[in-house]
């Protein structure tokens, strides 16, 4: 069961790698295309071996699908891989938790988009803005729902840590991506300034 912690960490980091390979052109698209079916197989395996894991990961899939986040070739390949394996193996899941967590996943996507749209206007000195950045920006609606299900004794406590690892490995790759993007922009600016300086020298 504890192997799932590693799987969730890998899935979170891998999904963000693919996302930024296509959306920001930060990472290698060829690697992302190779990574997508591998992550699909790993995710499907996590769903096959445990009904709770299947419930959580299906909810994540529902959230990104409803919000139109399956928007590049790699994600489509990964999504098809997961769905095909889930259908072929007859994955079991928990119905009521799936409904709750799917709704939470959709709300997390909405909240994250909201934060992205107004990030520049958020004031780090205002408690409400700090709360918004953490709770919505780090997708805490689904994690809170998982904590509620643990309290209700419907799922094991392990999955709180699994979801934390999933989301924060995603955020770590996102932070690395932003640093790499800023370095690339700075390098481009220096090249442009150097070229202009050379022309007018």
Structural write-up:
- With 201 residues, the protein is an all-alpha fold.
- It has one domain.
- The protein has eight helices and no strands.
- It has helices at 3-23, 29-49, 51-66, 73-89, 95-118, 127-135, 140-151, 158-199.
- Helix 5 runs antiparallel to helix 7.
- The chain starts with a helix and ends with a helix.
- Residues 192-201 have low confidence and may be disordered.
Keywords:
disordered C terminus; mainly alpha
Quick rundown:
This protein has 201 residues and is mainly α.
Give the count of helical stretches: 8
Radius of gyration: 19 Å
Derived from helix and strand composition plus strand pairing, the structural class reads mainly alpha
Shape: globular
- N-end to C-end Cα span: 66 Å
Low-confidence stretches: 192-201
Element-by-element helix/strand order:
HHHHHHHH
| Count of spatially separate domains | 1
The percent range for strand residues is under 5%
Q: Please count the beta strands (DSSP E, at least 2 residues each).
A: 0
- The portion of residues assigned to helices is over 70%
Overall residue-averaged pLDDT value: 87
How would a textbook summarize the main sheet?
A: none
